[in-house]
């Protein structure tokens, strides 16, 4: 039984409803639950139907017993259906976008592989074919690693290591290993050691110079008479001569008294141990003679050693020298347990100082941000295999420099190079606080703790002076 009565709505509410829908010509039912739920079961609860007509602006309500009149079914949720359709469309669009992106990446990679294969096929191999003898000056870790690498490029090639230590010479010739540096790594059969300069240098096609910078001048003076004027020198040594501030590109031709001695600098992030283990490595050869740089690239490049070329000899050499000093600074931060924040700040500042000086000396800034710059800096500053970083760690831990050097069987070039930093900075009017602080610590004029305090209190303005 249906009952008709006026809805108990206030005038203000009715007016609001009327004004809100005065422009509408639609007729709608608003379903509202009544307060009769306490008197009837849920299945029989009455429903209040509110009728609104915009033309008459009259409200009527009808209470329908659920048993007599079933309430109208709710309209289909059109929005929910549209939402599902929209979601499906978005999903399909996202999947299509992902497939397109994957296709773009795949096509780009395939182009790169084809270009690389074409380049390799065009690359000349006659350099390796006509090279019969390579001499390596020095029997240290990196010289040994490069001798092993070059010998592995061609079994018929004779690779002779000129060493001063008779024990190393004997170990290489009899046991085929460098017992001092790589006792567990077997060298190729075509690697031979000798202490005789004439035997080593006579008839050599290339010379790899792996003697530490501070000893290079005296070493070369002793072998100069056996060096052919056209023998290309590939320098593996990194550093600056302490008293003269000379780089290897100056030391070699001046000591040999031949300004036209072919010269190439080889540098980049490369630990000797990883070269011996044939792990992927990338390096840079720098020469003002582009043809010579390409020739050395053909000689050295292999599956596990990528060789880039550049004409920026100054940039490659100065970065290779100063990164050793910066590595000592990074080690000091580690030894003092100053944390990762200070390590990142110090290395970033050191990179800027190296760039300031090298560009003042005529280097390209792109070289400093490349393999032989930033690449070598990261490796030397952050990896425990670095000799220079190890020196810094021990200095920061409180050991004396003399004790550290006496316990090492390899040369940390940064110790000597640090002394040249102050002179270079003054010569080129470049402020280099981090690298200068390292030099003062090595000279025992400043403690690591005091150096950190001074660096933290530097005025910020100095970074804008370059």
UniProtKB/TrEMBL annotation:
Pathway, per record: Phospholipid metabolism; Membrane lipid metabolism; glycerophospholipid metabolism; Lipid metabolism
Q: What is its EC number?
A: 1.1.1.8
The record, for Gene3D superfamilies, names:
N-(1-d-carboxylethyl)-l-norvaline Dehydrogenase, domain 2 (1.10.1040.10), NAD(P)-binding Rossmann-like Domain (3.40.50.720)
Q: Where is the Glycerol-3-phosphate dehydrogenase NAD-dependent C-terminal domain?
A: 312-452
- Cell location: Plastid, Chloroplast
Pfam families the UniProt entry points to: NAD_Gly3P_dh_C, NAD_Gly3P_dh_N
| Reactions accelerated catalytically | sn-glycerol 3-phosphate + NAD(+) = dihydroxyacetone phosphate + NADH + H(+)
| Record-given protein name | Glycerol-3-phosphate dehydrogenase [NAD(+)]
> Which organism is this entry from?
Centaurea solstitialis (yellow star-thistle)
């Amino acid at each position: 039984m249906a009952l008709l009565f006026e809805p108990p709505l206030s005038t203000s509410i009715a007016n609001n409803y009327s004004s809100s829908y005065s422009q509408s010509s639609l007729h709608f039912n608003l379903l509202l639950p009544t307060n009769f739920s306490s008197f009837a079961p849920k299945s029989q609860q009455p429903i209040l139907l509110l009728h609104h007509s915009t033309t008459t602006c009259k409200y009527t309500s009808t209470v329908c017993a659920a048993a007599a009149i079933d309430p109208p079914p709710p309209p289909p949720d059109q929005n929910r259906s549209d939402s599902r359709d929209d979601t499906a469309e978005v999903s399909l669009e996202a999947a299509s976008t992902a497939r397109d992106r994957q296709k773009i990446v795949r096509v780009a990679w395939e182009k790169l592989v084809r270009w690389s294969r074409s380049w390799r096929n065009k690359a000349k191999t006659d350099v390796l074919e006509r090279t019969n003898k390579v001499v390596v000056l020095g029997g240290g870790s990196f010289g040994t690693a490069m001798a092993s690498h070059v010998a592995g490029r061609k079994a018929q090639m004779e690779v002779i290591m000129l060493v001063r230590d008779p024990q190393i010479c004997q170990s290489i010739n009899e046991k085929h290993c460098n017992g001092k540096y790589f006792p567990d790594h077997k060298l190729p059969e075509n690697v031979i050691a000798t202490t005789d300069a004439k035997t080593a240098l006579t008839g050599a096609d290339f010379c790899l110079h792996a003697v530490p910078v501070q000893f290079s001048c005296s070493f070369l003076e002793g072998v100069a008479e056996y060096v052919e004027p056209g023998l290309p020198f590939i320098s593996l040594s990194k550093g600056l001569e302490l008293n003269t501030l000379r780089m290897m590109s100056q030391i070699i031709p001046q000591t040999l008294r031949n300004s036209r001695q072919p010269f190439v600098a080889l540098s980049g992030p490369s630990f000797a141990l990883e070269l011996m283990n044939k792990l992927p490595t990338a390096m840079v050869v720098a020469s003002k003679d582009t043809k010579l740089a390409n020739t050395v690239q053909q000689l050295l490049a292999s599956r596990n050693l990528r060789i880039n070329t550049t004409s920026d000899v100054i940039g490659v050499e100065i970065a290779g020298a100063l990164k050793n000093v910066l590595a000592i600074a990074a080690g000091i931060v580690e030894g003092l347990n100053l944390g990762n924040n200070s390590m990142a700040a110090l290395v970033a500042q050191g990179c800027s100082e190296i760039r300031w000086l090298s560009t003042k000396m005529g280097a390209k800034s792109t070289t400093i941000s490349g393999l032989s710059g930033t690449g070598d800096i990261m490796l030397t500053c952050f990896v425990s295999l670095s000799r220079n970083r190890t020196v810094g760690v021990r200095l920061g831990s409180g050991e004396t420099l003399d004790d550290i050097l006496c316990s090492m069987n390899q040369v940390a070039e940064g110790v000597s190079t640090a002394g040249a930093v102050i002179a270079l900075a003054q010569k080129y009017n470049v402020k280099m606080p981090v690298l200068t602080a390292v030099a003062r610590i090595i000279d025992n004029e400043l403690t690591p703790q005091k150096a950190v305090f001074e660096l933290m209190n530097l005025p910020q303005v100095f970074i804008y002076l370059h």
